[in-house]
């Protein structure tokens, strides 16, 4: 049996310096709660939205293993605002499988967007983006994902190792349920170095400098034969030059 690589968490105080020095930083769930000023009840309330994610109808591999929503925001000077619903679009340069197409996903529910924790989360990540690139208006796309084992295997990143064409990528490990696999992998975009680890703590956080690293997650499988498993994540991208649009 292959041993599992443990996440190389860094203290909250080293978040910005590690992101600048290495292109990624990992925060433990305890540090995320401290950073967001969130209680377990706050996070549980937000996580309830993952039980109502519509199927992804755009998967080109024919899979049925992904459910998601998509909403867009701007963050500037400590203020987060939702913008009119829009399609998710990426160029083929960054997503060879699903790039070049407008994908209209259902938006996040209004009651979720209205949660004080949600706005605080958007602003805190804006602070991290500003520490990386400088203060500016950030164009944010939010993607709640559930990858399950409906097909026997679920692929968190069917496009493979990739970049997103943004400034900062934030990946919250929201929950894992009766699965194996789902290893996170981060590699230098222009070099040989990389790390691999498995995120298991609910609400631990991976921050990525998208210009410097590529990332992927390995497929998941059910932990028990005949059982249904899933992996819930929240992915947010911060971009300084407007939303990507085709």
Level of helix content? Answer: 10-25%
Put simply, the count of helices is 5
β-strand amount: 25-35%
CATH architecture type: Sandwich
Number of strands: 13
Q: Report the uncertain regions.
A: none
User: Which CATH C-level class is it?
Assistant: Mainly Beta
Give helix and strand order, one letter per element, not per position. HEHHEEEHHEEEEEEEEE
Architecture overview:
- This protein is α+β, with helices and mostly antiparallel strands and 246 residues long.
- The protein has a single domain, classed as q2cbj1_9rhob like domain (Jelly Rolls, Sandwich), CATH 2.60.120.
- The protein has five helices and 13 strands.
- It has helices at 15-22, 29-36, 40-47, 110-113, 116-133, and strands at residues 24-27, 66-68, 71-76, 79-82, 138-148, 168-177, 179-181, 184-188, 194-197, 204-209, 213-217, 220-222, 230-239.
- Strands 1, 2, 3, 4, 5, 6, 10 and 13 form an eight-stranded antiparallel sheet that branches.
């Amino acid at each position: 049996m292959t041993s599992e690589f443990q996440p190389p968490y860094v203290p909250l105080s080293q978040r910005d310096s590690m992101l600048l020095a290495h292109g990624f930083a990992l925060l433990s769930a305890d540090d995320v709660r401290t950073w967001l000023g969130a209680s377990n009840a706050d996070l549980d309330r937000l996580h309830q939205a993952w039980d109502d994610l519509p199927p992804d109808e755009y998967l080109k591999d024919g899979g049925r293993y992904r459910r998601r929503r998509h909403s867009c925001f701007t963050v500037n000077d400590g203020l987060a605002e939702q913008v009119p619903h829009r399609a998710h679009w990426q160029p083929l340069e960054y997503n060879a499988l699903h790039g070049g197409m407008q994908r209209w996903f259902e938006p996040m529910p209004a009651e979720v967007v209205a949660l004080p924790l949600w706005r605080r989360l958007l602003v805190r990540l804006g602070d991290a983006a500003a520490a990386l690139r400088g203060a500016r208006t950030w164009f944010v796309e939010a993607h709640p994902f559930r990858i399950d084992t409906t097909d026997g295997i679920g692929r968190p990143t069917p496009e493979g190792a990739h970049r997103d064409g943004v400034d900062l990528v934030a990946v919250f490990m929201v929950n894992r349920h009766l699965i194996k696999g789902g290893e996170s992998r981060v590699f230098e975009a222009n070099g040989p170095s990389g790390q691999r680890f498995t995120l298991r703590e609910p609400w631990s956080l991976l921050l990525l400098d998208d210009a410097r690293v590529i990332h992927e997650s390995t497929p998941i499988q059910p932990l028990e034969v005949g059982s249904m498993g899933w992996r819930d994540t929240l992915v947010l991208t911060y971009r300084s030059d407007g939303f990507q649009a085709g």
